[in-house]
Design goal:
Elements (H helix, E strand, L loop, with lengths): L4 H7 L3 H10 L7 H21 L4 H4 L15 H15 L3 E6 L6 E2 L8 E9 L10 E9 L19 E7 L3 E6 L5 E6 L4 E6 L10 E3 L10 H11 L9 E2 L5 H11 L2 E4 L12 H14 L3 E3 L19 E4 L1 H17 L1
Parallel strand pairs: 1-3, 9-10, 9-11
Antiparallel strand pairs: 1-2, 3-4, 4-5, 5-6, 6-7, 7-8, 11-13, 12-13
Helix pairs in contact: 2-3, 3-5, 6-9
Bound molecules: 1,6-di-O-phosphono-beta-D-fructofuranose and magnesium ion (MG) (2 copies).
The site of one magnesium ion has 4 residues, from β3.
C-alpha cells in the first residue's frame, strides 16, 4: 500500500482542493473562479440543509407556513433563489445573474462586480419536494471580459460556457461539475461539511439500457419521438427492450443517465412545440456535462450547445445521454427532415 503524502492527497480530495489544483494549471489565474465556485458550493450546502427539513414544514414552520416568531416563511424554491442570489453577489465575482425564478436578469452593482455570468435553476424538480423525491440546483457559468456586461453576454450558445454543474439533494447530496476538462462528482460529508471527490472523471456508457421520458405526453408527440420510444419498447433487431425510468426531476433523471447510461428525452409536442425545459439553465448545463462525459445532446434539429437563445427563459426540446442512443434519435429526425 502506498502511504506517501501524495497518495493520501489524491485519496481524499475536497472540491476546494480540486478546483485549486485546476487553477494551478493556469498560472495567469488570480483565483476568481475558485472564489465564485466556493460561493456556489455554499449555496448548495444551504439549500441542502433547507431541503432536508422540508418535511418538517408543518411542524416547525418552513415553506409557506408561519414560524414560531409568527413570520411567514418562504417557499423552498423562492428561498433557494434568495440563497443563490446572495451567495453569488457576495462572491464579488459576478456581473449578471439569470435565475429561473426571476423574470429579468440581475445586474450586479459596478462596485461589487466581477467577470462571471451565472445562469441557474435554484430548485429543479420542485413539484417533487412534498414527497421527498430527489431535487437539485443546476448552474452554468459564462465569462465577460473587457467590457461592460449586457444581456447579450448571457444570450450565448451553450458551447461558450466556461463551466456547468448541478447539485442533487437526494439520498446523499452530490455535486457534479465540469470546468471543460471532463466531469467530476463530489458527495457532501455532512459531518465534515465538505464535498469530497467520489466520482472522478465520469464517463457515460456509450450505449444504455434505460430511456427516460414523460410518456403521459405521448399522444401529442411527433413522428421521430414516437418511433424512437416504440423502438425502445419493441426492438426489431433482436435486442432486449430498454427499461423506463422517469422521476420528473431533471437533475435526478440526468444524474442516473450520466452514471448508468441511456437517454433522457423532453421532446416538443403538438401542445408545446418547444418542450418544457429552459435553454439557459436546464438544457445548456446538462448538455455541457453530457458532452464532457462523452455523450451527446440534441434538440431534434441541432447540437444543443450550438443553440443561440434569443430570450432569457427560452425553451427547447432536448434529447441527451449515451452517444449511441442519441445517434439513433438523430437518425430518426434526419430521416423525417429528408422525407419532407
Ligand atoms: O412533469 P413533467 O412535464 O414531466 O416535467 C418534468 C420536468 O420539469 C421540471 O421539474 C422543471 O423544473 P422546475 O421544477 O425547476 O420548474 C424538470 O426538473 C423535469 O425534468
Ligand atoms: Mg428545473
Ligand atoms: Mg426550478
Amino acid at each position: 500500500m502506498d502511504h506517501s503524502a501524495d497518495a493520501h492527497r489524491t485519496d481524499l480530495m475536497t472540491i476546494t482542493r480540486f478546483v485549486l489544483n485546476e487553477q494551478s494549471k493556469h498560472p495567469e489565474s488570480r483565483g476568481d473562479f475558485t472564489i465564485l465556485l466556493s460561493h456556489i458550493v455554499l449555496g448548495c450546502k444551504f439549500v441542502c440543509s433547507a431541503v432536508s427539513k422540508a418535511g418538517l414544514a408543518k411542524l416547525i414552520g418552513l415553506a409557506g407556513e408561519t414560524n414560531v416568531q409568527g413570520e411567514e416563511q418562504k417557499k423552498l424554491d423562492v428561498l433557494s433563489n434568495d440563497v443563490f442570489i446572495k451567495a453569488l453577489i457576495s462572491s464579488g465575482r459576478t456581473c449578471i445573474l439569470v435565475s429561473e425564478e426571476d423574470e429579468e436578469a440581475t445586474f450586479v452593482e459596478p462596485s461589487n462586480r466581477g467577470k462571471y455570468c451565472v445562469v441557474f435553476d435554484p430548485l429543479d424538480g420542485s413539484s417533487n419536494i412534498d414527497c421527498g423525491v430527489s431535487i437539485g440546483t443546476i448552474f452554468g457559468i459564462y465569462m465577460v471580459d473587457g467590457h461592460d456586461p449586457t444581456i447579450e453576454d448571457v444570450l450565448q450558445p451553450g458551447k461558450n460556457m466556461l463551466a456547468a454543474g448541478y447539485c442533487m439533494y437526494g439520498s446523499s447530496c452530490t455535486l457534479v461539475l465540469s470546468t471543460g476538462t471532463g466531469v467530476n462528482g463530489f458527495t457532501l460529508d455532512p459531518s465534515l461539511g465538505e464535498f469530497i471527490l467520489t466520482h472522478p472523471d465520469i464517463k457515460i456508457p456509450k450505449k444504455g439500457k434505460i430511456y427516460s421520458v414523460n410518456e403521459g405526453n405521448a399522444k401529442n408527440w411527433d413522428g421521430p419521438t414516437t418511433k424512437y420510444v416504440e423502438k425502445c419498447k419493441f426492438p426489431k433487431d433482436g435486442s432486449s427492450p430498454k427499461s423506463l425510468r422517469y422521476i420528473g426531476s431533471m437533475v435526478a433523471d440526468v444524474h442516473r443517465t450520466l452514471l448508468y447510461g441511456g437517454i433522457f428525452l423532453y421532446p416538443g409536442d403538438k401542445k408545446s412545440p418547444n418542450g418544457k425545459l429552459r435553454v439557459l439553465y436546464e438544457v445548456f448545463p446538462m448538455s455541457f456535462l453530457m458532452e464532457q462525459a462523452g455523450g451527446q445532446a440534441f434538440t431534434g434539429k441541432i447540437r444543443a450547445l450550438d443553440l443561440v437563445p434569443k430570450k432569457l427563459h427560452e425553451r427547447s426540446p432536448i434529447f441527451l445521454g449515451s452517444y449511441d442512443d442519441v445517434e439513433e434519435i438523430k437518425a430518426l429526425y434526419a430521416a423525417e427532415a429528408a422525407a419532407k
